[in-house]
Amino acid sequence: MTITLSPEDEQLVRERLDSGSFQTPEEVVHHALVADQQPNAPAPNKRKLTLSEFFLQSPLAGSELDLERSKDTGRNIEL
Questions:
Q1: Taking a C-beta distance cutoff of 8 angstroms, is the pair 26, 1 a contact?
Q2: Residue 18 placed within a domain
Q3: Of the candidates 40, 58, 37, which has an alpha carbon nearest to the alpha carbon of residue 49?
Q4: What is the residue-level pLDDT of the chain in tens, covering all 79 positions?
Q5: Residue 14 domain-assigned?
Q6: What's the domain count of the chain?
Q7: What is the 8-class DSSP label of residue 65?
Q8: DSSP one-letter string for 3-16
Q9: Which of 20, 40, 43, 56 has the fewest CB atoms within 10 Å of its CB?
Q10: What is the domain range of residue 15?
């Protein structure tokens, strides 16, 4: 059997492969077909991202946000 994917669907398959959850396009399609039969089917175990990978893939990556916090100088208390 041969199928033709739209460019959008092909991109989705590539994203699933890049995530490390699947090894082949056939696995992606198989999982989608099985999940369609079982609406609450969990995704296969996904490789956890390192903290740096998480931030690099964030939608805010490259937005030049300043996430520095001002140092807390504490407060004066009487003893």
A1: no
A2: yes
A3: 58
A4: 888 989 999 999 999 899 888 889 999 888 888 887 776 656 666 677 788 788 778 877 777 777 777 888 888 888 8
A5: yes
A6: 1
A7: -
A8: ----HHHHHHHHHH
A9: 40
A10: 10-56
Most distant CA pair in the chain: distance in Å? 81
Q: Hey, what are 69's tokens?
A: 């916090």
What is the rounded CA–CA span in Å between residue 18 and residue 5?
18
Q: Is 53 helix (H, G, I), strand (E, B) or coil?
A: helix
Return the structure tokens found at 43.
Answer: 């995704």
Sole residue written with tokens 């690099």:
56
Read off the tokens for 1. 């059997």
Integer Cα distance of 71 and 60 in angstroms: 24
43-53: pLDDT as tens digits = 666 677 788 78
